[in-house]
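User: Need the bound-state model for zinc ion:
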Amino acid sequence: MTDSALVLFSGGQDSATCLAWALARFAHVETIGFDYGQRHRVELDVRPAFLSMMRLEFADWKAKLGEDHMVDAAVIGRLSDTALTSETEIAMQANGLPNTFVPGRNILFLTLAGAVAYRRGIKHIVTGVCETDYSGYPDCRDDTIKALQVALNLGMDQRFVLHTPLMWIDKAATWRLAEDLGGEALVGLINRETHSCYRGDRTVLHDWGYGCGDCPACDLRAQGWTRYMQSPRT
Ligand code: ZN
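Assistant: Bound-state model below.
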């Protein structure tokens, strides 16, 4: 299936936008999500709701949107003691990385995605990693993804293509991309039905979506939304 894609869909804004991006380009799209003991487990809960709403609101995409694969990746949570997988307070570390960094997480996720793509005969793998306004996670870097593409293709004897539609755009441009792909209906759906907050807070709906409002993920999302709303429409 050279015209099929597997999208790493976490339930957050970035991966939801990547899912729409893939649906606009490929004939058949499947999704994969990972349970790794994340504190913000609510993002796993919003995934099926988002997929259902997408099928409901976008008839063209409904026909293309295939199976959702949930993979148990709890081992990565057990191996690491980070603020994403335990009750540790979110803080900067001496090495300049926030303690929300889970070492090896994206490397493992993309390897598992490669294994599923191999089994499903899927050529394109899409991930929402971004080097532009990210938290400094080294496994979100373009070089890491390019190296992984080489490693997966050598190690599985495949010709996978790893796509990173958000690599060089900021959060405001990510909202703009969603608007270009699916209009205000998609922007509204992503705003209401995706989840970014590290604390898993879905009690308050802000104009930029649900969240605690003061964790790094909420900050990034809120700032991106504000810049998107302020930027001139073309
Ligand atoms: Zn938050």
